[in-house]
Specification:
By secondary structure, this protein is of the alpha+beta class. The strands form four sheets. Strands 1, 2, 3, 4, 5, 6 and 7 form a seven-stranded antiparallel sheet that branches. Strands 13, 14, 15, 16, 17, 18 and 19 form a seven-stranded mixed sheet that branches. A hairpin with a 2-residue loop joins β16 (524-532) and β17 (535-542). The longest helix is centred in the first third of the chain and has 72 residues, at 16-87. It is rod-shaped.
């Protein structure tokens, strides 16, 4: 019996991912179908509702049109009778012969078949003549109609329309009376058979079972397709449509649903017959009137159901077509996420999903390339770190060697001084000790400059200044050194102005000229400049041994020195050109070397050229105020190294100062004889014993004496952080070892700053 274990999801073709894709399919299918169905149902409902309203209004409009047409015919029928009656309207009775009037009346009966009887009433309301189709003519009957409406109303309103009445309970009639022009002209009264109205009503057809009928102002039926209803004098005033029409409550533009005489619902429309104030109604059974509408709604509903079924099918199809590529994207992304960067997603949908799949493929390709590039970069970086470590080791070895050389020389010279030495020899040994110290100071200063440049703490102060000022300092500084070696130093000055940092550019030029003087054995050094477009190119030429082509780039590295024939052992530290390269990059100046072996070299620095300005004469700076020995101002020096304190004690006393040395601020406070007189100056090391700093010690002494005592710091720490802290606290900082002249200049400068501040 075999036993095995399946991975989760293996039997189901993917487990959770397929389950999620199944949920995604159902979600998208449901959303799509719901959205389409909602749109279709909403559209179908609105369409059926508006179609229902339009069809209903159209049906009523048709019926109303029929009613208005019939009302117009009836009104025209009555108006024709009135027009014919106006032709026979009598003049005053004694002005017209009886036979002439009879002729006009007979002509009226012939021209208007609906008129069955014509009567003439004089101005007093007495009947003068009556002519009838169905009875004998009557003359001068003198029947008094003065109180009858057929006389009273025409005399006051010109025309009178009498109520409908039935002759022998069979046919409807009505009386129309028209008054003459003047009050003495009398009135003509015609009896009109309304059977014509029945013919008009009978011709109206609304559908197959629709009908029309006419009621008078009181609601009695006067015309109907069923003449028996008319003959029975049917009262229609109880029907809601008749009641509403009589009360003028029915809106002519809105459909009106009512009931017929049998109580069945009908769609009713009416129109008013003017000037009789009758109402003609055209009605259709609701089920017949709305049958086309119901059929249209049924067709729309069937179409809607078909559309919903198609939407459901399309939704499922589209959701599937959408989910399948998404599932392929998901599976491909999972494989790529697991590290299979060779995986490619194949989607052919010609849409955004295919574009997304292509982007995944491109991403995988880029990741694969990135991994390969990253591995290459890691190898390259590892190699660079190894080279950097090697360079660091060489740097430390070279620095150690260059420091040991003067230290070794110092030890030898000191050993000579322990013995018995003549005065001339002692002076020579002291001079050599001073040279060894100068070499050590030069190395430390160069290392400090390299450290500052690498740390990025130097900030150029860009100004515009004349190049001649810089060239004058070069000439003054190096003329003596060149003369000692038997070299000519020629500085070609001009009136050009440049934009740069004067101090940093001076350091660049000094290093270049110093190298030229150091490595040139015969000939000379030329310093000048020439225009290069908007720039100025400063050049330093020498007639030295030159630099081989394969080493011209290396000489800008730290501790790189060329070996030259006849080297006297004082070829420099190998840091000058490294400082030049870093300073030029800091100032955004380009430095270039052209050299020929055996003939010499040319170093050039390109700087921006600016327009020359008027030279303003500068007042000479006041000399540093050296301390008067008679003043004997107190200087406090704090350092935790006894040798440093001993050296500082002798140096400051030789300058005429009263000195107090201490290892801490507490010792300094104890040593001050007069607490009411604070010291004139505080010089403190930065790193002191007990974890205190020179800044803290200076602040403690200032608070104790409640005075802003001038002070500066001295430290062997060349880190950029310390320089930043000193600047932030407002203190000057000198780095050990400190040249005595620099120390004396700093003392004078700080004391002068205090004098200037007090003067203001």
């Amino acid at each position: 019996m075999k036993s095995f274990t399946e991975e989760p999801g293996a039997a189901t073709g993917g487990g959770p991912s397929h389950a999620r894709s199944g949920r995604l399919f159902r979600k998208y299918a449901t959303i799509f179908v719901a959205a389409v169905c909602l749109a279709l149902v909403t559209n179908g409902a609105f369409d059926m509702w508006f179609s229902y309203q339009e069809q209903k209004a159209l049906l009523v409009e048709i019926q109303r049109g029929q009613a208005e047409s019939a009302a117009s015919k009836i009104s025209h029928f009555v108006e024709e009778i009135e027009a014919q009656m106006s032709w026979v309207t009598p003049l005053p009775w004694n002005a017209v012969a009886l036979e002439e009037w009879r002729f006009d009346a007979v002509r009226l009966l012939r021209q208007v078949p609906a008129v069955t009887e014509v009567a003439q009433l004089d101005s007093a309301g007495h009947e003068k003549l009556r002519i009838s189709r169905h009875a004998m003519d009557v003359t001068e009957s003198q029947v008094d109609y003065s109180g009858d409406p057929t006389f009273v109303h025409p005399m006051s309103n010109k025309t009178y329309y009498g109520p409908v009445y039935f002759v022998d309970g069979s046919e409807p009639y009505m009386a129309i009376a028209v008054a003459g022009v003047g009050r003495d002209h009398g009135v003509i009264v015609c009896q009109v058979n309304l059977k014509f109205i029945w013919e008009v009503v009978s011709q109206i057809k609304s559908g197959t079972r629709g009908y029309a009928y006419v009621v008078d102002s009181s609601g009695r039926l006067i015309a109907d397709p069923d003449i028996s209803l008319v003959l029975r004098n049917t009262d229609m005033s109880g029907l809601p449509q008749v009641r509403a029409a009589r009360l003028s409550q029915a809106d002519a533009d809105e459909p009106f649903t009512a009931v017929d005489r049998q109580g069945k619902p009908v769609l009713s429309a009416h129109a008013t017959v003017t000037p009789l104030n009758w109402l003609i109604f055209v009605e259709s059974p609701i089920n017949e009137a709305y049958a086309p509408l119901y059929n249209s709604i049924m067709r729309s509903a069937i179409l809607l159901l078909v559309a919903l079924a198609l939407a459901l099918f399309a939704g499922l199809l589209f959701a599937r077509r959408m989910v399948v590529p998404i599932r392929a994207l998901q599976e491909g992304a999972m494989r790529i996420g697991r590290g299979d960067l060779t995986q490619r997603i194949a989607i052919k949908t010609n849409d955004e999903l295919e574009g997304l799949g292509d982007e995944f493929n491109n991403m995988a390709a880029r990741l694969r390339e990135s991994y390969a590039t990253l591995e290459h970069k890691v190898d390259e970086r590892t190699r660079q770190l190894e080279l950097a470590n090697l360079a660091k080791s060489r740097f430390l070895a070279a620095a150690s060697h260059d420091l040991r050389q003067p230290l070794h020389a110092l030890g030898l010279f000191v050993a000579q001084l322990h013995g018995r030495v003549r005065a001339n020899e002692r002076r020579r040994i002291v001079a050599r000790i001073d040279a060894a110290l100068s070499a050590m100071n030069e190395l430390f200063n160069a290392l400090l400059d390299i450290s500052k440049l690498d740390a990025g703490v130097l900030t150029p102060s860009i100004t515009e200044f004349p190049l001649a000022k810089l060239f004058d300092r070069v000439d003054t500084t190096f003329t003596g050194a060149a003369r000692e070696k038997g070299l000519s130093l020629r500085v070609v000055s001009n009136s050009a102005w440049v934009r740069s940092d004067f101090i940093l550019l001076e350091r660049v030029l000094f290093n270049l000229v110093s190298n030229a003087v150091r490595y040139t054995r015969s000939g000379g050094v030329l310093v000048g400049s020439r225009k290069r477009g908007v720039n100025l190119q400063i050049e330093v030429w020498d007639t030295g041994p030159g630099v081989p082509q394969d080493q011209q780039q290396n000489i800008f590295g730290e501790f790189y020195r060329l070996s030259a024939p006849g080297d006297d052992g004082r070829s420099g530290l190998g840091l000058g050109l490294a400082i030049v390269d870093r300073l030029c990059r800091l100032l955004d100046h380009s430095v270039r070397l052209t050299s020929t072996l055996g003939k010499g070299s040319c170093f050039s620095v390109t700087v921006p050229r600016v327009a020359a300005r008027l030279k303003i004469s500068e007042s000479p700076a006041p000399a540093h105020p050296f301390m008067d020995a008679s003043e004997r101002k107190l200087v406090v020096v704090i350092d935790d190294d006894p040798l440093v304190l001993d050296g500082m004690r002798g140096l400051f006393r030789s300058w005429g100062y009263q000195l107090l040395v201490a290892g801490t601020d507490a010792e300094a406070l104890v040593g001050i004889a007069n607490p009411d007189h604070p010291p004139a100056l505080i010089v403190s090391d930065y790193h002191l014993s007990g974890g205190k700093t020179g800044i803290e010690v200076i602040e403690t002494l200032r608070r104790t004496f409640s005075a802003e005592i001038p002070a500066f710091l001295v430290s062997g720490d060349i880190s950029p952080e310390l320089l930043g802290k000193a600047r932030a606290s407002g203190y000057h900082l000198l780095h050990k070892p400190v040249d005595p002249m620099k120390l004396r200049a700093m003392v004078s400068y700080v004391l002068r700053e205090q004098q200037v501040a007090r003067a203001h």
